[in-house]
Amino acid sequence: MREKLESYFGFVFEKELLDEIELLGTYKKLRENELLVDLGDKMKGVPLLLEGAIKIVREDKNGEEILLYFLERGDTCASSFASAISNGKCGIRAIAEKESEIIFLPKEKLDDWLVKYKTWRNFVIDSYNIRLNEMMETIDTLAFMRMDERLYKYLRDRAQIMRETSLNTTHQEIAYDMHTSRVVVSRLLKQLENEKKVKLHRNRIEILEF
Amino acid sequence: MREKLESYFGFVFEKELLDEIELLGTYKKLRENELLVDLGDKMKGVPLLLEGAIKIVREDKNGEEILLYFLERGDTCASSFASAISNGKCGIRAIAEKESEIIFLPKEKLDDWLVKYKTWRNFVIDSYNIRLNEMMETIDTLAFMRMDERLYKYLRDRAQIMRETSLNTTHQEIAYDMHTSRVVVSRLLKQLENEKKVKLHRNRIEILEF
DNA sequence: GATGTTTTGTAACAAATGTTACTAAACATT
DNA sequence: AATGTTTAGTAACATTTGTTACAAAACATC
Fold first, then answer.
1. Model confidence over A43-70: pLDDT tens digits?
2. Which CATH number is associated with domain A145-207?
3. pTM of the entire predicted model
């Protein structure tokens, strides 16, 4: 654990903070598709992502879903931070997109560290900023792009997160993430295939052009 | 200034912090429609909103706009905070929706205060959380609602911010905020009028049902 | 290989949103 | 009063997105 901590956070946090994190944090491994945070959960701490990728999804009262963004190694979940420190509920769902490793930091220390460590303050503020910017990008996508562009962007983003040029997924799964219907996804994927941007297989989409 | 500061922030900040804010902050009055922050600005500080309402708008590279949310008294602009503390650029535009009063806090003190004042830490974290939640609400609106519902929500939200039951605005202005066309807005407004939810006048929309 | 299940393809249609074009009303200016 | 400008109303049509229905292909299981 210390090794991975050093390798992704060694240049972010000062030594004393790394020591505290090692002492107080709990390491956890997540299987693919494992649920990390569910809607309405009260967080007892915040996760630092050491390895893997986490999908963050928003769900409204009618159970309708939409993908917000992905977390990568080095990231933390700003929404959990919010929930942990204020004892409030979390408005999102977090699912491991692939096998991942996290360190769970207990909420009791979050505020102490803000006082003690400048690097922690920077990290927290940066995390919030990154997340605000991701949200804005999501809003741009929803407000300004048509479904075909959104789909292509979705495929590229997801491939990038997975560090693959092929995605193992179904049209239905994409439809859930994008909050549209499977038929629409199939139609637009076929269109992208005709434009030679992707190649379609069963349970797999190959991205030809980034 | 001290009076207004006390009345909106007296229960939020401790006395020493209020003293510092009074000493180091600069008071500013904004006319209606005055531009407070523009896209790409580097912020020299963050505004605390004492009075009035500020409209926060997102613009993409093609100059297309969409309303993100409103700030009310007691709020601050999380996006400016981000920009100020990291010396980065601001990704939004902020315009006074009505005559407003703000205190501008110099960016040099933002980090110091995080160490010195627990109330400041809480305020900053709360502000980020509120903003993240607003962004999620905006995303919900874009992803899950049809244009007619979005329009009705827009009217109610804006009226609430203005503390009025009538809005002085044009169909074109609404279209800009919602990133649609004037014709669509006129059509849907007429529909809302038929449903007795609003009453239309020239340059004014009366909201009959909240 | 027969059977059932999951995934994909596609047509036909419906609904929502966007666009163009024109008109009329309200208001302002001279 | 005549004129121009801004704002709003509406029809007709185009495009985008969503829905329903069905068939075929790929795969899994027996």
1. 999 999 999 999 999 998 888 899 999 9
2. 1.10.10.10
3. 0.95
